Amino acid sequence: MAQKMAVECEHVIADTVEATEFPQLSQKYRVMSVPKIVVNEKTQFVGALPEERFLAEVMKGAASGKAK
Asked: 40-59 pLDDT, tens per residue?
C-alpha cells in the first residue's frame, strides 16, 4: 500500500527493504514481523492494515515529522 501511495502522490517516498538482507536496518527498527512500516523515523506499525487505518497511521507519522 505504501508503494501505491508513492506512485499516486509526489510527496510520498516509499522504500521496500528485505529484512533478512539488511540486518542492520532490521535491528535499528526492531523488525520482528513483516510488514513493518516506519514513517518519518517516528511512527511505526506492523501488519497489513485496512486501507483507511493504514492511511490514518501514515498521516499521523507525517504530522509527527513536520518541523516545530
From this structure: 988 899 999 999 999 999 98
Does this model's pTM top 0.85? My answer is: no
At 64, which amino acid appears? S
pLDDT in tens, 6-22: 999 998 899 999 999 99
**Residue reference for cell 532490521:** 26
| Alpha-carbon torsion angle 34, 35, 41, 43, nearest 10 | -110
Residue ranges of domains in the chain: 2-64
Q: Which residues pair with 36 in a beta bridge?
A: 46
Q: Which CATH class is domain 2-64?
A: alpha beta
How many residues would you count in the chain? 68
